[in-house]
Every structure is written in structure tokens, then in C-alpha cells.
């Protein structure tokens, strides 16, 4: 009976087997443009993927560009919520999923993973006057713990702390909620956590709570594509290029965050401008940048 299930129905059935935190609305499978290979990601995760203007850039994008080059194709990048990345890949919306995705046993049942390209883990992000220690992680039990939706940080809160996390759509928005007093502590992957506390002297990160590895995910049953991915990653690693990419994009993500920080007063001033027309009597000419 199972063997007669049409492929599309099978894909839908597999997608619906996703765990609750990875459920997503059914994505339409569309073929890539000719000569293109698509990477699906979630671009709030510096230095792996972040936005520079309209463009999504970062370590994962560089690795996927190398894969595209090996295949003689150009890379197209699609940005979705993190908990939609794997379901969208399974549904055929992209050929590669690269989003700082940790290899887990659950995910291995749904997708195939390349060789890992980063060894990393998750940390607490905390206010220095209310520190959280990786050695005494159980002290976070009963506290409001903010995480990004669908991540291994969310799994950690459920499995190790035995409670439901507070969900956010990015490490940065979980951190903003902590600053606003809405959560007590945040858990996130160490690299985006470092990016988030940059320029925030009252906050710090703990030692690692877990050891995890990132890899690129593809739909199951594509041994040739998997071999290409592994060759590209192994070559980048052996030649030292992988380390160069990591250093380069870590520096670029830091520069982008610093530029954003510097632009904040101007943005705030714009927000304070409430009039539609500089000729209005009530218009705050300085805040609105009106000519004097
Ligand atoms: N590495 C974490 C995970 O795979 C978080 C990834 C992310 O938020 N982009 O769950």
C-alpha cells in the first residue's frame, strides 16, 4: 500500500512528520531557474548569514557559492523563518539548506547532511548582574528562557530544563526581549550570541552548553549531489580557504553591526519626526531634517 503512494503525497506525508517546532505551511515545489541552484536560509544569523542591504551574505553563502561553482551553476538565495528551512527543502523549494543548521538525529531522519564545516555549540546570553553558568545550567530551570524558534536551543530548554522556551524569530529579537525584561536569559548559538552582545557592556555569554556541528542539508536520496557537497567542503577545509572564509565574514559581520550601531541615533531621530510636511507649524524641523 505504502509503495503505491504518489511521490507528492509521500513528500507531504514526510513534511507533516516534522516536529511541532519545525512545522511550516506547505511550500510550493517550483523548479529552479535554468543554470541556478537554490540555497534556503534564515538571514538573522551572523556571521553565517545576514543581510547587507538587500543581499544575503555570510559564511554559509560563500560555501554554497563554491558548491554552485563546482556544479557550473549560479547560486540563488532564499530567506525564510528558521523553522521553515528544512520543511521547505523537503517540499522542493530549494536544493540546499544552509542556515547554521546543527546535525541532529531527528533531522537526519528527514534530510541528508554534508560533512560538517563548523564545530560549535550553544551558550547562555545573560545580564552581568544576573549571570548564568554553563556548569550550573539547571539554575535556569523555572526562569523565562528566550530562544529562536525551531533551534537546538529550543530543544535544550525542553530536554535539559524540562520546560517550554519563550520563542522568538531571531537571536537578536530574543536578546531585545531580555533587555526589555520579558525573559530572564537567552540561549543561542555562540557565534550569533557574540554578535548580539557586541557593544553591550552589561551583557555576557557563558561557556558552551553543548557541542554541535553545522552541515548543509539536502533532500534525501541524492548521493551525487551529496558527493559534490562533501568534495567542496573537504577541499575548502584542506586548502585553508574555509578558515579564510570564516575569518573574513566574521570581520565583515562585525563591521556591519558596528555601522548599524553608529546609524542608530539617525534612525531614532527619524522616528521622532512625526510630521508629513516640513511646512507644518508643528513640525520639529531638526528631528525631521527639514531645511531651516
Ligand atoms: N544551530 C541551531 C540549530 O540548528 C540554530 C540555527 C539557526 O538559528 N540558524 O538549531
List descriptors:
binds glutamine; alpha/beta; D-Maltodextrin-Binding Protein, domain 2; three-stranded parallel beta sheet; 2 domains; five-stranded mixed beta sheet; disordered N terminus; about 290 residues; 9 helices
Walk me through this protein's architecture.
The protein has 292 residues and is of the alpha/beta class. The protein has 2 domains: 2-118 and 213-253, Periplasmic binding protein-like II (D-Maltodextrin-Binding Protein, domain 2); 122-210, D-Maltodextrin-Binding Protein, domain 2, CATH 3.40.190. Helices cover 38% and strands 18% of the residues. The chain is built from 9 helices and 14 strands. It has helices spanning 7-16, 59-70, 82-90, 105-108, 152-160, 171-179, 190-197, 223-239, 241-272; strands at residues 36-41, 50-52, 55-57, 74-79, 96-97, 111-113, 118-120, 122-127, 145-148, 166-168, 185-189, 203-205, 212-214, 217-219. The strands form 5 sheets. A 5-stranded mixed β-sheet has the order 10-9-11-8-12, with helices on both faces. The protein has a 3-stranded parallel β-sheet with strand order 4-1-5. A hairpin with a 2-residue loop joins β2 and β3. α2 (59-70) packs across α8 (223-239). It is globular. The protein starts with 6 loop residues before the first helix and ends in a 20-residue tail after the last helix. Residues 1-25 have low confidence and may be disordered. Bound molecules: glutamine.
Amino acid at each position: 500500500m505504502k509503495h503505491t503512494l504518489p511521490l507528492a503525497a509521500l513528500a507531504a506525508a514526510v513534511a507533516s512528520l516534522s516536529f511541532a517546532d519545525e512545522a511550516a505551511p506547505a511550500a510550493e515545489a517550483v523548479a529552479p531557474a535554468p543554470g541556478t541552484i537554490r540555497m534556503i536560509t534564515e538571514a538573522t544569523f551572523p556571521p553565517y548569514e545576514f543581510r547587507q542591504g538587500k543581499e544575503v551574505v555570510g559564511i554559509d553563502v560563500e560555501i554554497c557559492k563554491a558548491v554552485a561553482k563546482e556544479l557550473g551553476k549560479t547560486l540563488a538565495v532564499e530567506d525564510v523563518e528558521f523553522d521553515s528551512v528544512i520543511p521547505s527543502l523537503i517540499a522542493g523549494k530549494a536544493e540546499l539548506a544552509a542556515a547554521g543548521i546543527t546535525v541532529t538525529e531527528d533531522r537526519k531522519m528527514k534530510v541528508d547532511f554534508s560533512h560538517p564545516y563548523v564545530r560549535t555549540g550553544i551558550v547562555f546570553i545573560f545580564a552581568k548582574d544576573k549571570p548564568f553558568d554553563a556548569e550550573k545550567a539547571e539554575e535556569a530551570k523555572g526562569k523565562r528562557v528566550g530562544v529562536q524558534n525551531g533551534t537546538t536551543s529550543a530543544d535544550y530548554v525542553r530536554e535539559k530544563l524540562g520546560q517550554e522556551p519563550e520563542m522568538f524569530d531571531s537571536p537578536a529579537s530574543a536578546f531585545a526581549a531580555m533587555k526589555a525584561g520579558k525573559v530572564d536569559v537567552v540561549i543561542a548559538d555562540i557565534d550569533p550570541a557574540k554578535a548580539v552582545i557586541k557593544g553591550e557592556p552589561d551583557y555576557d555569554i557563558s561557556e558552551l552548553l553543548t557541542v554541535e556541528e553545522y552541515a548543509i542539508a539536502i533532500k534525501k536520496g541524492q548521493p551525487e549531489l551529496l558527493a559534490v557537497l562533501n568534495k567542496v567542503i573537504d577541499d575548502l577545509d584542506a586548502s585553508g580557504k574555509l578558515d579564510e572564509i570564516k575569518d573574513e565574514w566574521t570581520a565583515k559581520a562585525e563591521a556591519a553591526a558596528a555601522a548599524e550601531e553608529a546609524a542608530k541615533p539617525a534612525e531614532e531621530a527619524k522616528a521622532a519626526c512625526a510630521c508629513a510636511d516640513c511646512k507644518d507649524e508643528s513640525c520639529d524641523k531638526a528631528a525631521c531634517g527639514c531645511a531651516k
